[in-house]
Design goal:
The chain is built from nine helices and seven strands; from the N terminus they run H-E-E-E-H-E-H-H-H-E-H-E-E-H-H-H. By secondary structure, it is an alpha+beta fold.
């Protein structure tokens, strides 16, 4: 099977209401190196090759073969879709979501979002993050893999992911209006140290 055949099969089932409801559903296939998974937000009946997320199977397998102290005692939400896949391609692509757009992004997703090139070095990356921000990262993006949201409770990890996705949406839409602009360091530090927001940070 190939990605073109996956598109054909997906459209075949997507065009028939007897097989699914409201254009939803999921399809995927894998070869020896990659797995292709239908991304959220694409209708099966009209999906194209850009509607599938391409994931490296070797990179994914490495996640389960090791223990990561960074994830210890944390609830984890993982996401990947077409836009995330493009953002985690390399550090330059992730630049548009690495910092904060609003005070709520700081409170719920952290003062910056961490990008790691290699899972083997994640401990060092997290230590450097903590030195800069005096807190544990809530969002960790792994190159060519996807994004992890780390919360102290199950619901909080979902909320953190929602704020990451919101930041990504801002970055993507801003490209049509002159480009993105983060809060500056003084504004971020003010929110981090503001008494009311400090309390919110502790409870979220």
């Amino acid at each position: 099977m190939s990605i073109k055949e996956l598109v054909k099969v997906s459209r075949f089932y997507g065009e028939n209401p007897d097989f699914l409801l409201a254009g939803g559903g999921n399809t995927s296939f894998k070869d020896k190196r990659y797995i292709y998974v239908k991304a959220s937000g694409f209708k099966m009946a009209s999906i194209g090759e850009d509607g599938f997320v391409k994931l490296d199977r070797n990179a994914l397998n490495r996640i389960w073969e090791k223990r990561y102290p960074a994830f210890k005692n944390k609830y984890i939400t993982f996401e990947n879709n077409t836009e995330i896949s493009a953002a985690v391609k390399d550090s330059a692509s992730f630049e548009k979501v690495h910092s904060s757009y609003t005070p709520d992004h700081i409170v719920y997703a952290g003062p910056e979002m961490s990008f790691v090139e290699d899972l083997d070095g994640i401990g060092q990356d997290i230590n450097q993050y903590k030195e800069r921000n005096w807190c544990h990262p809530k969002v960790i993006a792994v190159k060519m893999t996807g994004v992890f949201a780390l919360g102290d409770e199950e619901n909080s990890s979902h909320v953190i992911m929602l704020f990451f996705l919101d930041a990504l949406k801002i970055a993507v839409y801003a490209e049509s209006f002159g480009g993105y602009k983060f809060m500056n360091k003084e504004q971020i530090d003010f929110i981090k140290n503001w008494e009311v927001e400090e309390f919110r940070l502790k409870v979220n």
